[in-house]
Amino acid sequence: MSTTPEQLYNFGFIDEDSKREVRRQILKAIALPGHQVPFASRDLPIARGWGTGGLQITMAIIDADDTLKVIDQGDDESVNAVNLRRLLQRTTGVTTTVDTTAASIIQTRHRIPEEPMRRDQILVLQVPMVDPLRWVEPNLERATIMHGESDYGRMWVYMYESVVKAGDLRIATQYPVIVAGRYMMDTTPIPRWDVMRLHNAEALFLFGAGREKRIYAVPPYTTIEPLQFEDFRFKTEFVAGQICARCGAQDTFLTSHFVVDSDHADGGHWRSSCSDTSFCDKRVLVNATTQEAPQ
Amino acid sequence: MTTTFQPPSLFETFCTATFRVLLDCMARPGTIGQIPEPSMFTNIPTITIDQQPVIANRFALTSCLSLLDQETRFAQAANSSWIDPQSDINRWVQLRSNCRLSDAPNAQFVYLWDSASSALLHELNPGTLTFPEQSCTAFIAVPEINHTEPTWRLQGPGIDGYCDVGVHGVVADFVTHINATRAHFPLGIDIVCIDTHGKCLALPRTCQISLK
Ligand SMILES: [Zn+2]
Predict the structure, then answer these.
(1) Which of A32, A68, A104, A105 to mutate to test the interface with B (most CBs of B within 10 A)?
(2) DSSP secondary-structure letter at B75?
(3) Domain check: are A26 and A118 in the same one?
(4) Domain annotation covers residue A257
(5) Chain B: residue whose CA lies nearest to A215
(6) Is residue A289 over pLDDT 90?
(7) Where are the alpha helices (DSSP H) in A130-257?
(8) ipTM exceeding 0.95?
(9) Considering the entire predicted model, what is its pTM?
(10) CB contact under 8 A, A11 and B8
(11) Which of B1, B19, B160 sits opposite A61 (nearest CB)?
C-alpha cells in the first residue's frame, strides 16, 4: 500500500457512507443479541477471509482517541495481525498496543484475551462462518427464516446425533450457543475455552463476517447458553494438570508447537504454551522479577 | 510510522463521537451518555405549534442526522402529528444528510420532538420475523434524564440485574407507548431518548421498562 501525499485515505480507510451503514447495522445487532444482521461488505485491500468483516467494524467505530490491539490466534505478532494493525494505524493514526489492559478496541480472530475485559473495551471478532444452522441448512436464506421462527429442532437433533452418538468433534470447535434466550449463534472461531467468557461479560462483543456479509453482537450482561444435553454436558478443552511451558500458567488456553531437537529420538518434541502471547509474556516478566527479588 | 489519512471534518468527528455514545448507551441501557455539542449546525429552523415557534433539541435531532444518508428514509413528528415533508425543518435535514423523506410506516429513522408524539410509535415499522433489523429507530427529545431521581426500572441484556433511571417531564403514557412497540420480540422499535443537555438514554427493544 503505497501512496503519494495527494492520495490521502479517508480516516479509517472506508468512506463515511460505508461507516454509517456499518454503524446502523451494529446498533440493530446490539438490539437483537445473537441475530445476524446483513451489511454491504466493502472490498478492502486484503482478501476476504482474512478479517474484512471485523476490519470494517473496527474502521466504522474507531475514533482518534482509541488505543488499538490486533491479535490473530492470540498472537499480536502473526503476519495477519501485523498487516491489519498497520492498515488501521496508517489510516487512523491511533496508538496501538499489545497490552490487553491498555486497549480500548481489540480486533481478534480465534481468541478472547485471557485477561478479563472491562466495560470501556470493545472486542471485535473476525468471523469466517456465521450461521450455526449451516450444518442442517446450507441455504442462508432458508436458515434466516428458521432463525426468525426459532426453528431450531433439527439443529438440536443434529447436535445430539453427531456429537453425542458419533463423537464428531468438528462442531465442538464451533460451538453453537443460545444468546439471551432467543437466537442461536455460532461461536466460530473461538475455542470452547472462550465460549463462556461471552456470558454476562462486562465488555461488548461485535462479530463481523466479510465474505458472508453479516454483523452480530453479544452485549454486556447477556446470557450465553451452550447447546448441551443431560448425558453430554458442554466442556472446554481444559485438561487436568495442563501447564504452560513458558510462564507456568495452569488455567489458560494452550497451543502446541513442535520444537526441533536433534538429541531427541523423534527429532524434537511438542511444547504447549499460552495462545495469548501478550498475557504469557507479562507472566514470564513477572516470574523473572519475583525470582530475582530476595524473599 | 507514516500516516496517510485525511484529517476528519468537524461533522465526521461529531458523527464518530456521537456514534460511540449511541453504541455505549445501546449496549448498556440505563447508562446515561453525553452527546457532543453539534457546533457545526447553526440556524436549525423552528417549527410552529399553536402559533408559537418551537426550537428543536439540537442534540437529539443531529445525533439522529448523524446516522442518515441517501440509503435511509426519515420522518419527524411534533405534538403528536407528522411534519410535512415539504417543511423547512425536513428540507434542512435532507440537505445535510441526503436522506429520503418518508411517511411513518416506511421510515427507518424518526425524530420525535416531544414525548407526546410517542402516541405515533405504533405507526412505525417493527420489522419482520425474518428481518427484525429492518425496524425503525426513534430518537425522542425529552426534557431531562438523570440518575438522581429515578422514575423507571430497566432490565434486559446489557444490564447487570436492573438499572434505575429518571426520565422527567414526559407524558403519562410514555412508557405505555414505548412498551407497546416491543410486545412481540424480535419485532420492535429501538428508542433513543435525549434531553435538552444532550444526555442520552437508549432503550433497545430488549429493554424492559417498569415504572418505579
Ligand atoms: Zn504462558
Answers:
(1) A32
(2) E
(3) yes
(4) yes
(5) B133
(6) no
(7) 140-148, 153-159, 192-195
(8) yes
(9) 0.95
(10) yes
(11) B19
Q: What is the pLDDT of residues B133-149, one digit of tens each?
A: 999 999 999 999 999 99
User: Are A214 and A92 within one domain?
Assistant: yes
> For residues A96-106, b (16+ Cβ closer than 10 Å) or e, as one string?
bbbebeebbbb
DSSP assigned state of A172: G
pLDDT averages per 10-residue partition of chain B, 212 residues: 79 97 98 97 94 96 98 98 97 97 98 98 98 98 98 98 98 98 97 98 98 93
Residues of chain A with C-beta less than 8 angstroms from the C-beta of B159: 221
Domain annotation covers residue A153:
no
**Residue A261 lies in domain:** 239-288
Q: Say if A159 falls within a structural domain.
A: no
C-alpha cell at B112: 420525535
A39 found inside a domain: yes
Nearest to A33 among B17, B68, B206 (CB): B206
Q: What CA–CA distance (Å, rounded) separates B167 from A104?
A: 30
Tell me whether residue B166 is exposed, middle or buried, using C-beta atoms within 10 angstroms of its C-beta: 0 to 12, 13 to 18, 19 or more. Answer: middle
Residue A241 is among the residues annotated as catalytic for this protein: no
The grid coordinates of residue A147 equal 432463525
Q: Please indicate, yes or no, whether residues A211 and A248 belong to a single structural domain of this protein.
A: no
Q: How far apart are CA A199 and CA A206, in angstroms?
A: 14
Kindly state whether residues A203 and A249 are assigned to the same domain. no
- In chain A, the residue whose alpha carbon lies closest to the alpha carbon of B1 is A90
Q: The domain spanning residue A106 has which CATH number?
A: 3.40.50.11310
Helix axes B10-27, A16-31, angle to 10 degrees: 10
CATH label, B10-79+87-99+106-211, candidates 3.50.50.60, 3.40.50.11310, 3.40.50.300, 2.60.120.10: 3.40.50.11310
Pick from A70, A124, A125, A60: nearest CA to A96:
A70
